[in-house]
Amino acid sequence: MVKEQLQGKNIVITGASGGIGAEIAKLSAARGANLVLLARSIDKLEQLQTRLEQNHQVKVDVFQLDVSDTEKVKEVFEQIFEKIGQIDILVNNAGFGVFREAHEATMDEIKGMFNVNVVGLMACTSMVLPRMRTRRYGHIINIASQAGKLATPKSSVYSATKHAVLGYTNSLRMELDDYNVQVTSVNPGPIATNFFTIADEQGTYVKNVQRFMLQPEYVAQKVVNSMLTKTREINLPRWMNMGSVAYVLFPRLYERIGKRLLPSK
Ligand code: NJP
After folding, report:
1. Nearest ligand 1 atom, CA 96
2. What is the CATH number of the domain that holds 14?
3. How many C-beta atoms lie closer than 10 Å to residue 157's C-beta?
4. Is the CB of 20 under 6 A from ligand 1?
5. Structural domain total, the chain
């Protein structure tokens, strides 16, 4: 993608206070995009805002937002529209996981994951859809997961949320195809971020997948390169996506082997 393509565009990123979201913010600013950064940790957002505005000729706005609070989502997006006019690209990145077997997951964890990963993502998307459809312009990028394609033991709830994100994203793409609005899902494998502080309290999974871990900068680079292009999905690493293809083709075999061989959580 040519660098100029993002120059002066308005990009909103949820979950921008760390991990992949913060890396996407840095790379987008380096390409001249103006940013609106959202997360609960307003102090971290403000630090990133200062750094990006110092290093690049861009405007960065920040808002404190828990995406699971749908009333607040509406309020914040109305403030964003008032402040910057149009949103060209929405990156739905906020999310978390707790790796437990289904029988161990509490209702609070189940509702928490669905409210952030699914309902929050849909709430933010709903706020940009009317204007993107009217303008016949825009790009919605949903950070899903390989867990949205490939079920693994000990991630039943997290995996269910990401399957939901992919179902929603695939429908959305068809609904928006005639409106020139692009829709991309991003399905990475494990990435070295703070995600695992909550997801994998014991550190077992991190230890088992250490050698496969992607770096957040690499994932962010792929996401930013896809902006305003017709990219259906980003699957990282490529070989891991072969697993989800094999799952579709040979589900029984996969589950028989997978329950023993998949990296233990
Ligand atoms: O995780 P982390 P990642 N409302 O923990 C924010 C997916 N993914 O960058 O609110 C608003 O470093 C949180 O900010 P704060 C994953 O499912 C990951 O790895 O201030 N924001 C922070 O900025 C997720 O969708 C892996 O605490 C909320 C950010 O989200 C996305 O990648 C693999 C929030 C999380 O940063 C980014 O995760 C994969 C809320 N209620 C998919 N709750 C992986 N890391 O291995 C959290 O396939 N945030």
Report:
1. 17
2. 3.40.50.720
3. 23
4. yes
5. 1
